[in-house]
Every structure is written in structure tokens, then in C-alpha cells.
């Protein structure tokens, strides 16, 4: 699974939404997919199942493979791959931080 998290800003690398930028709103680790705000929007026809319920068309983001997006670094604003920095907090206690491969800054 990619190191992208919910809330990250990503850019789409290929497909019909190539170049689009959006926020990750959901991760689906099992399928290695992400749902990105405003990206890969599909129209779904909703049929009224109960009386009083309205039928119509709903637009919703469909998941895209996480390899199709790249993180936009919140520090330098460039698209980047994510590195990992492990810092030792105390004896035996380690913290994994994500770092930007472009500017080297810690992302979170
Ligand atoms: Zn950066």
C-alpha cells in the first residue's frame, strides 16, 4: 500500500482526470485504491425503492488505483514520492515519519 493518507493532497498522473488535484477522502488498502475528491466522478442512477423516495442521478467519486496518483508536498508544493524517516524517541521506541523526497521536509 502506498504511504498516502486520508487528507493528503494528490495529483492524478494518468487517465481522464490527469493533472487534477484533490484531497484523499478514503483509502481502500485491500484493493490498493484511493478515493480522491472530485476525481473519477461517475454518475450513478438511483432507482426509487420505496414510495416517496426520489430516483435520479447521483455523482460520486469512484476509487482509483493508488499508483495513479502522487502526493503534493505540503511543504514545497511539488509532486513527490514519499520517503520514510525513522526516529528513535527513547529506548526501543521508534517513530515513523513521512518525508518529502524533493525537499526532505517531514510531512507529518
Ligand atoms: Zn517537499
UniProtKB/TrEMBL annotation:
Protein's UniProt name: Large ribosomal subunit protein uL24
Q: Tell me which Gene Ontology terms the entry assigns under biological process.
A: translation
Keywords of this entry: Ribonucleoprotein, Ribosomal protein, RNA-binding, rRNA-binding
KOW domain location is 3-30
- Native source species: Aerophobetes bacterium
* NCBIfam families for this protein: rplX_bact
Q: What does this protein do?
A: One of two assembly initiator proteins, it binds directly to the 5'-end of the 23S rRNA, where it nucleates assembly of the 50S subunit.
**Which InterPro entries does the record associate with it?**
KOW, Rib_uL2_dom2, Ribosomal_uL24, Ribosomal_uL24_C, Ribosomal_uL24_CS, Ribosomal_uL24_KOW, Translation_prot_SH3-like_sf
Q: Give Gene Ontology CC terms.
A: ribonucleoprotein complex; ribosome
Q: Which family does it belong to?
A: Belongs to the universal ribosomal protein uL24 family.
A Pfam family annotated for this chain is: ribosomal_L24
A GO molecular function annotation here is: structural constituent of ribosome
Q: How does it assemble?
A: Part of the 50S ribosomal subunit.
Q: Does the keyword rRNA-binding apply?
A: yes
Amino acid at each position: 500500500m502506498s504511504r498516502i493518507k486520508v487528507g493528503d493532497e494528490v495529483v492524478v498522473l494518468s487517465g481522464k482526470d490527469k493533472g487534477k488535484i484533490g484531497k484523499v477522502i478514503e483509502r481502500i488498502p485491500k484493493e490498493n485504491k484511493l478515493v480522491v475528491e472530485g476525481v473519477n466522478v461517475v454518475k450513478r442512477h438511483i432507482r426509487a425503492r420505496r414510495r416517496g423516495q426520489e430516483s435520479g442521478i447521483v455523482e460520486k467519486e469512484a476509487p482509483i488505483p493508488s499508483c495513479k496518483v502522487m502526493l503534493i508536498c505540503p511543504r514545497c508544493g511539488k509532486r513527490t514520492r514519499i520517503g520514510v524517516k525513522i526516529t528513535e524517541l527513547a529506548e526501543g521506541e521508534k517513530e515513523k515519519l513521512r518525508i518529502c523526497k524533493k525537499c526532505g521536509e517531514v510531512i507529518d
